[in-house]
Amino acid sequence: xxxxxxxxxxxxxxxxxxTTIRKITCKNLQGTATLTYQIGDDDAGNLHWKxxxxxxxxxxxxxxVAFKDIQKALNDWPKDSPITSMVLRPLFQGKSVNTPSFLxxxxxxxxxxxxxxxxxxxxxxxxxxxxxxxxxxxxxxxxKPGKPKAKVKAKAAARIPKGKAKLEVSx
Length: 171
What we know:
The chain starts with 8 loop residues before the first strand and ends with a strand. The strands form three sheets. It has a five-stranded antiparallel β-sheet with strand order 1-5-4-3-2. The chain has helices at 67-76, 99-109, 129-139, and strands at 9-10, 19-27, 34-41, 47-54, 64-66, 113-115, 123-125, 151-155, 166-170. The protein contains three helices and nine strands, in the order βββββααββαββ.
């Protein structure tokens, strides 16, 4: 029996405290459909991610997923294995099987992941710094006064080329 991963998902509702700070489109991994996804932050400045539309026929889960859970899944993946959508499946237990690959496509779009050269459907951690810098600009002044903002920093990972960043968010 496998243990279910603990994930933080937030369903959109009037009680939801996640504010969208970016809404972006990208192609799915096959290039056959356009995905729209949102990046948001909560009152404490924590980042969240969700798929909001797909022009193709594939169903997906539109729940917010905490970016820290995405980071943990990516960083916990075996260092000697390429990243595939399988690494993101625990984030969507009991949800559409398309959502992990759709999320992976958005992470590629943001530069957080990049294709492994000469390997189809295999990815590795990319340089997350440009993404994190762009998001932090949108977060500036966004969180409620008196609440700490997420401090984002890059840390080198053993499995990625020098200069690439391991994803880490700390408070």
